[in-house]
Every structure is written in C-alpha cells, then in structure tokens.
Write a sequence for this structure.
C-alpha cells in the first residue's frame, strides 16, 4: 500500500465491459468468475484450479465471537506462513506456493477454496499470479443476498532483502482472515454472502502503476464485474498484527462503512481501537472503490517508531501479537454483524 498526502484527482471510474453475464452466475462461486474471464475476449491468460471439500454448513446463529484461542491460532498460522513461504513475492513460484498453502489451510478446515491463476504484465515482464478465495453463503436465501468481500494480500514486498518475512505486512491478516473464514463457515451471516479474497501481487515492484501492484485486486474486481455480482461492501485488512495496534480507516473510504466500523468498535467496547484518518491510502480496497464498490481499509500504518519497521527486515513475528489479532478479529466480525 502507499500513503497519499494529497487527495488524488479524479480517479478514473471502472468501466463496465460489454460482456454478458455468464450462465454460471447462479453458482455464486468465483470459480465461475475464472471461467468467465477465460472466455472473455480481453481476458488475460488464466487457468483455474478448484480445491473441493464439503460445503460449509450454515448455522442458525449470527453470534460470531472471536476468541483468544482463535487469535492464538491466527498468530500460529502467520508464523507458519512466514516460516514456510518467505519470501512470497507476487509473480514468483514461492508466491504461488504461498497461495497453495492458503488453499490447503481452508481445505483442512473443511472450507472449499478456489484458486485463480492469472497472468499480468509487470515492469519485469508478464508474470503468473494467483488469488485464493472462499465463499460463505448467507444463512437466508443466499441467491438473493449481496456479497461482502474481505481482502488481505499475502504477498511480500519485493526487493527488501534478506530477513524480510512480511510478518505483519501480509502474513498477519492472511492468517487472521483464515480464522475469520472458519468462524463464518461455522456461523454464516444471515443476509450477506461473504467472499474471503487473498490477493497476490498487492505490493509493487518499483512504483504503483497500472501494471505494478494491486494485481490481484484488479483481477478480482474485473471478475466480479463480469459476473455482475452485487457487492455491498469490500473491507480491506492490512497490517493488523502490530503489537501496538491502532487501526486507521483512510479518508478515501465509503462514509457509511466508516461510520459502521466506528459503531462496531464501540459495540465491542473498544471505541479507541480505530481512528478515522485524514490521509488517503492506496491499497487493495481502493481498486474496489475505483470500481464504484463501497469499500474501507482497516490498516495500522504506524508500525514501529515512525513506521520504521514497515517494509524492512524488522517486520518479523516478534512484532506481531495474538492480542492485536484478537482485537482486530472481533472488530471485523462486529462490522459484519452490523451490516
Ligand atoms: Zn506492504
């Protein structure tokens, strides 16, 4: 992600492409999205692999407490991701292996995972990326419900050098979202379908540009648009494992979602957990915003003294706390419960 000091001038709106919604729309799965993309004339080359498991069973209750055990599990998962898949830069074999790791963690929790391989241009030539998603249908008439998209990138920032694990920047929210997916699969939202989206290639190689950074978010938004899937909200999660947690919502978020997040923080008894920031941030969520989808980012962009641990080898698991994941997890679930 990158912080913008001044408001950006008129971001170009997402242009709806003149492609009919594919027949697989009713399936409500992003597997269909990948097929639709592969069939589109301007699609980037893409292959898809779906990992199947039995469907998550809806539960009656929408009560979604995120426990300390959940947070401990999230931290352990972040640790495992860093240990097994560092680095995991977008467009690399190691990045694709990290995507497979996410999918297999979902599978191990009896949650279907979809892997969306795609090719995209980068400053160093065309590369293969892979997003991972899981869909958790609403408890009530999911075919009639809109979608909420939770987003975390899993890739590491390229070029930082030896020892950079992206423990907070990437791994912490990747793991947090795995545990949130487990909670939601056990107890789905009543009236919203949830798409958990782990993006590849959020980080840029050189400088954010149309073909450098946000690769996975762009691919996902393009696919959602092709399917004409109604998305009520996209919520970005980034850098939420910081032991000294203070979440900011960048100013370029959708006002009603910002208000909802503030109310959710109060509801869990943590009114000081988040601040409405005055600065704009470009992160995966802003690609959704550009497409006209209501979106906010939950991000702690103050990591270490003067943010000095961000994008450095100091971003290690030593600075990622289960308590922060506990607080962030409860905030996210409280937001979802209030939608
Ligand atoms: Zn980063």
């Amino acid at each position: 992600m990158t912080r913008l000091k001044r408001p950006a001038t008129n971001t170009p709106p997402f242009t709806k492409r003149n492609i009919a919604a594919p027949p697989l729309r009713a399936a409500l799965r992003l597997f269909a999205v990948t097929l639709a993309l592969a069939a589109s004339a301007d699609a980037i080359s893409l292959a898809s692999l779906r990992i199947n498991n039995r469907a998550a069973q809806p539960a009656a209750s929408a009560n979604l407490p995120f426990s300390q055990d959940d947070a401990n599990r999230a931290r352990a998962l972040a640790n495992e991701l860093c240990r097994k898949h560092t680095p995991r830069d977008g467009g690399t074999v190691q990045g694709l292996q990290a995507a497979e790791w996410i999918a297999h963690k979902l599978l191990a929790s009896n949650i279907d995972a979809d892997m969306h391989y795609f090719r995209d241009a980068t400053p160093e030539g065309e590369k293969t990326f892979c997003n991972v998603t899981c869909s958790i249908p609403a408890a009530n008439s999911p075919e009639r419900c809109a979608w909420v998209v939770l987003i975390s990138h899993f890739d590491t920032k390229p070029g930082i050098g030896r020892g950079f694990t992206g423990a907070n920047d990437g791994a912490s929210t990747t793991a947090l979202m795995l545990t949130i997916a487990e909670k939601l699969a056990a107890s789905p939202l009543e009236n919203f379908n949830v798409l958990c989206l782990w993006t590849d290639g959020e980080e840029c190689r050189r400088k954010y540009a149309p073909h450098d950074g946000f690769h996975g978010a762009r691919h996902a938004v393009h696919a959602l648009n092709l399917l004409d899937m109604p998305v009520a909200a996209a919520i970005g999660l980034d850098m939420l494992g910081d032991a000294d947690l203070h979440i900011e919502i960048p100013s370029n978020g959708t006002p009603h979602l910002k208000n909802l997040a503030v109310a959710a923080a109060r509801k869990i008894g943590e009114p000081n957990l988040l601040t409405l920031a005055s600065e704009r941030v470009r992160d995966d969520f802003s690609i959704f915003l550009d497409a006209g989808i209501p979106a906010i980012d939950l991000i702690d962009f103050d990591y270490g003294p003067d943010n000095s641990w961000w994008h450095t080898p100091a971003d290690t698991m030593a600075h990622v706390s289960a308590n922060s994941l506990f607080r962030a997890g409860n905030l996210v679930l409280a937001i979802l419960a209030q939608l």
Notes: The two ends are 26 Å apart (CA to CA).
